[in-house]
Design a protein that fits this description.
By secondary structure, the chain is an alpha/beta fold. Among the domains are: 47-111, membrane protein fhac (Ubiquitin-like (UB roll)); 142-237, Cell division protein FtsQ/DivIB (Rossmann fold, 3-Layer(aba) Sandwich), CATH 3.40.50. The protein contains five helices and twelve strands. The chain has helices at 14-35, 59-70, 79-87, 152-167, 201-216, and strands at residues 47-51, 92-100, 104-111, 114-118, 122-125, 130-131, 143-146, 173-178, 184-188, 193-197, 222-226, 234-237. It has a nine-stranded mixed beta sheet, with helices on one face. A three-stranded mixed beta sheet has the order 1-3-2, with helices on one face. Helix 2 (59-70) runs antiparallel to helix 3.
Length: 249
């Protein structure tokens, strides 16, 4: 028989004890959640505080969207689900949700800021995102961008680049389009149309910028400038009928 008179007493180390207590606490918390001890009846959400600069979404719309997932109670409410419901609203770009003791959820909302139309039915935001919203067709003053969906980001980037070039001569873009063949057409805010073709778009726009002041000071109003020629350009005046040959490129 082994001699155990001199064996040291077995003790639980503090770190081990802390681990056991934490684990037990997590288990108890789970039990409380399942049993409803910290559910909506004991700890209801009484306030849905909405923050942010709201122009096209009302605070009541945001509260209505959050109400369902927030009904689980202060502790049990799924904040990710609340955020997802709020971000599903058409004009909401992003939302942040946090708990505030003892009975409130705070919802910080950032709205989309439209900068241009995309293919008539959608909008570009200042973040470069595309979204759709009821009533946007009545909005005035937005540039119209159009083209194949696969070239959407390219059209937006080209719009920004062209606007910077045209700003130097006091012009802005009203429309920018690329067709299925890859040919670009721009319309300035004064109604002048620029035919830019499929190649060397930036260089051709630069050529227009160089002659802009001369065209603007002329005795006749320009309706269209065709920049698809290798050298030079063709001009159509507002009082001139169409019918000239179309260059390639």
């Amino acid at each position: 028989m082994a001699n155990s008179d001199h064996q040291p007493d077995r003790v639980i180390r503090p770190a081990t004890l802390a681990t056991i207590l934490i684990g037990a606490g997590l288990v108890l918390t789970g039990v409380w959640l399942r049993s409803g001890l910290i559910g909506a009846e004991q700890w209801p959400v009484r306030w849905l505080d909405v923050e942010g600069e709201l122009a096209r979404t009302s605070a009541s719309q945001i509260r209505s969207a959050a109400l369902g997932p927030a009904s689980g109670g202060f502790f049990a409410a799924d904040l990710a689900e609340v955020r997802a419901e709020v971000e599903a609203l058409p004009w909401v770009a992003s939302a942040g949700v946090s708990r505030h003791w003892p009975d409130a959820l705070r919802i910080a909302v950032t709205e989309h800021r439209p900068i241009a139309r995309w293919n008539e039915t959608a909008l570009f935001s200042d973040r470069g995102e595309v979204f759709e919203a009821d009533g946007s067709q009545r909005m005035q003053g937005l540039a119209r961008l159009s083209g194949p969906e696969a070239r959407r980001d390219e059209v937006l980037e080209k719009w920004h680049v062209m606007r910077r070039s045209l700003a130097g001569v006091g012009q802005d873009l009203r429309e920018l389009a690329v067709d299925q063949r890859g040919a670009w057409t721009a319309v300035l805010d004064n109604g002048m149309e620029l035919k830019l073709g499929r190649e060397l778009i930036d260089q051709r726009l630069g050529r227009f910028v160089q002659v802009h002041d001369e065209l603007r000071s002329g005795p006749r109003r320009v309706a269209r400038v065709d920049l698809r020629y290798t050298n030079g350009l063709a001009i159509r005046w507002t009082d001139e009928s169409t019918g000239e040959a179309e260059p390639h490129g």
